[in-house]
TrEMBL record:
GO terms for molecular function: ATP binding; ubiquitin conjugating enzyme activity. It comes from Cannabis sativa (Hemp). This is E2 ubiquitin-conjugating enzyme. Belongs to the ubiquitin-conjugating enzyme family. The active site is at 89 (glycyl thioester intermediate). The lineage of its organism: Eukaryota, Viridiplantae, Streptophyta, Embryophyta, Tracheophyta. Coiled coil: none annotated. The keyword Transferase applies. Keywords: ATP-binding, Nucleotide-binding, Transferase, Ubl conjugation pathway.
Length: 166
């Protein structure tokens, strides 16, 4: 019997196929596994990431939507809110409830109303405006704040690399 999570993910996949959203494309990594999606995010216009095509894997837990998926870029990306290994760090992907470190309000963290679409749109927004207050990549955050030209060069290199992978 199909789980509630797999039925919900199937519905979201069908919705995205019927009504594609500007800025990204999404589909299954493997047709037999509804819990692992491949996402390509197009670098948002008028940002440093403009023109890039960044691939990521979105992995959903079996108790989705009660728990958030994890998102990990497989394309090289330089950003304060992306760990060096590619994992995305944004509030809505953090488990629901109070933040044990006190940085985020419970209202900023995961809630079951989020969809694949709202998650990816949040990541696109993150690319447009990095949060260097609680960085996942401390070195990228320091560069973003103190050495903006070096930061831009690294991002530009990532954009070029992503275009070559097409």
């Amino acid at each position: 019997m199909a789980s509630q999570a797999s039925l919900l993910l199937l519905k979201q996949l069908k919705d995205l196929c019927k009504n594609p959203v500007d800025g990204f494309s999404a589909g299954l990594v493997d047709e037999t596994n509804i819990f692992e999606w491949s996402v390509t995010i197009i670098g948002p216009p008028d940002t440093l990431y403009d023109g890039g095509f960044f691939n990521a894997i979105m992995s959903f837990p079996s108790n989705y939507p009660n728990s958030p998926p994890s998102v990990k870029f497989t394309s090289e990306i330089w950003h304060p809110n992306v760990y060096p290994d590619g994992r995305v760090c944004i509030s809505i992907l953090h488990p629901p409830g109070d933040d044990p470190n006190g940085y985020e309000l419970a209202s900023e963290r995961w809630t079951p109303v989020h969809t694949v679409e709202s998650i990816v749109l949040s990541i696109i927004s993150m690319l447009s405006s990095p949060n260097d207050e609680s960085p996942a990549n401390v070195e990228a955050a320091k560069e973003w704040r103190d050495r903006r030209e070096e930061f831009k060069k690294k991002v530009s290199r990532c954009v070029r690399k992503s275009q070559e992978m097409l």
